[in-house]
Design brief:
Layout: E1 2-6, H1 13-24, E2 28-32, E3 37-40, E4 47-50, E5 53-54, E6 60-63, H2 70-82, E7 86-87, H3 91-98, H4 100-109, E8 117-118, H5 126-132, E9 138-142, E10 151-154, H6 157-169, E11 174-178, E12 186-193, E13 196-204, E14 219-222, H7 227-240, E15 244-252, E16 255-262, H8 268-274, H9 278-292
Parallel strand pairs: 1-2, 1-6, 6-7
Antiparallel strand pairs: 3-4, 4-5, 8-11, 9-10, 9-11, 12-13, 12-15, 13-14, 15-16
Length: 299
């Protein structure tokens, strides 16, 4: 099979592991810089060119679209879809998961457990917005934030009002969420491939920090998840339409609640902590999908 990884970071762990896993299984694979792709959008023969040459005869692509290039990245994925190339995660599923508000609304509609979440535009509504999520402490999140950036814990009502009013005053879209104190600064990252959670780790925030992101000093350890957590993670990925996803769950007093569904989950933390060949599982799932995909009939 001829495969391509769409990534702006060819030397990072996840990209390299996907290449290694594909080559180990006898497939031809290359890393393609998403922003160096350019497109001919026509009805009869849509195409993608890369560094002066057409990208043709790819059996499948593995999109690893960074949040800062979601708009252009999903356009490139859509173009591959127009050309009939199989994509591990579709452009629509990536767009859904990147829009925090949309993804929360989709998950809530299907009955997935979530932190109580508020969204407003006018600063006049701040007092009721705070009350809506259960008061302080609460968490304020930038809709465009990623990897813990733009996430603020407000421990008092006064602090919450000041932070929310400041963001709204800058015409910035935010979510206001209840703070799940009982989680103790930890979350569960469930790595979903197809209809299975193939690996799971508990990420614990560093002392004095409430965000559990590993690059912010958090630690990772293997964790045994409950059947309810497993079912929640798989359902959340399916609702987004993702074949591969990192689903972040908090353990609350009223059961598992989903914080985020990530369409380009990193491999390093979960492989290092669990010792599992997660990259290999991704490649094997992709090859199985290609094999099951109906052949196109020309003409």
């Amino acid at each position: 099979m001829k495969l391509a990884v769409l990534s702006r970071e060819p030397s990072n762990y996840s990209s390299q592991r996907l290449v290694e896993a594909a080559e180990k299984r006898g497939h031809e694979i290359r890393i393609v810089d998403t922003l160096r792709c350019y497109m001919s959008i026509v009805a009869h023969r849509p195409s993608i060119h890369y560094m002066g040459e057409p990208l043709e005869d790819m059996d499948a692509i593995i999109p690893r679209i960074g949040s800062s290039i979601t708009f252009y990245g999903t356009a490139v994925v859509r173009q591959f879809e127009m050309m009939g190339t199989h994509t591990l995660n579709s452009s629509l599923s990536i767009s859904r998961s990147r829009d925090k508000l949309r993804s929360m609304q989709m998950l809530a509609r299907k009955g997935i457990g979530l932190p109580i979440t508020g969204f407003a535009h006018s600063p006049d509504e701040v007092p009721d917005l705070i009350q809506m999520v259960g008061g302080a402490p609460l968490v304020v999140k930038l809709l465009e934030g990623t990897q813990g950036i733009g996430v603020v814990l407000c421990e008092t009502r006064q602090a919450a009002e000041s932070v929310i009013e400041a963001f709204l005053g800058l015409d910035t879209n935010i979510l206001v969420q209840e703070y799940i104190k009982e989680a103790g600064g930890a979350d569960i990252r469930c790595f979903v491939v197809g209809d299975k959670v193939v690996a799971a780790i508990k990420r614990q925030a560093a002392p004095g920090e409430f965000r559990s992101n590993l690059h912010r000093g958090g630690s990772a350890a293997v964790v045994k998840i409950t059947p309810e957590e497993r079912k929640t993670a798989v359902r959340a990925a399916k609702i987004m339409g993702l074949q591969v996803a990192g689903v972040d769950i908090l353990r609350s007093n009223h059961g598992p609640v989903v914080m985020e569904v990530n369409s380009s989950p990193g491999l390093e933390g979960i492989e290092m902590a669990t010792g599992k060949d997660v990259a290999g599982m991704v490649i094997e799932h992709l090859i199985k999908e290609i094999g099951e995909k109906p052949k196109r009939v020309e003409g």
